[in-house]
Amino acid sequence: MFYGYYLDPTYILVLIGAVICIIASSRVNRVYAKYSRMRSHTGMTGKEAAERILHMNGIYDVTVHHIPGNLTDHYDPRNKTLGLSDATYNSSSVAAIGVAAHECGHAVQHATGYAPLKIRGSLVPVANIGSMAAWPLILIGLFINGNMSSILINLGIYLFSAAVLFQLITLPVEFNASSRAVRVLETSGMLYPDEVDATKKVLSAAALTYVASAAAMILQLLRLLILTGGRRNHD
């Protein structure tokens, strides 16, 4: 079962996942930095763009506010707030407007009852527990004998699988929000065609980070199944 701390060949799966995430993160930072220097022709800020898009969709109960950090932008459906980061809130770049429009896409999803968003929301508690408790349960199961060993290992795998499922359901949610953002920017006249093209590149790079995270989680799950397979079959 155990390969030794330094000789465990399954560590390559963790390394592959880490490399994928690093590459995706590096790309989104590079692309965002490039188009954050491209000012939109309207001079509209991320905050102004967000408010306009929300109102265009008949949404008046979502508050747009400033939050610290870089690319920490998010929509919180619990209190209907749309947080825009330092790089987005007061910036008039096409990158900032694209990110603001993307977060508005989540607000529109929430307002229209978009099914994948609902499913993701229902998975949040289980995914949080799974990401924290899975490994401790599995490790305890590996160090004890008897039926309880298999119970703990299987429970850990089920919990981690829930965290993986959360990452997978996040993909259509994020892609759909970006599609909504691009459509509204194309049809509203808020950006010129070349500016929309730039925004597409920013949102595509951002989407790759979610794909990378999902891939890394799947690789970790595969590692868990490899490490515990022999023990579960033996028990």
TrEMBL record:
<keyword id="KW-1133">Transmembrane helix</keyword>
<feature type="transmembrane region" description="Helical">
    <location>
        <begin position="12"/>
        <end position="29"/>
    </location>
</feature>
<keyword id="KW-0472">Membrane</keyword>
<feature type="transmembrane region" description="Helical">
    <location>
        <begin position="202"/>
        <end position="226"/>
    </location>
</feature>
<keyword id="KW-0812">Transmembrane</keyword>
<protein>
    <submittedName>
        <fullName>Zinc metallopeptidase</fullName>
    </submittedName>
</protein>
<dbReference type="InterPro" id="IPR007395">
    <property type="entry name" value="Zn_peptidase_2"/>
</dbReference>
<feature type="transmembrane region" description="Helical">
    <location>
        <begin position="151"/>
        <end position="173"/>
    </location>
</feature>
<dbReference type="Pfam" id="PF04298">
    <property type="entry name" value="Zn_peptidase_2"/>
</dbReference>
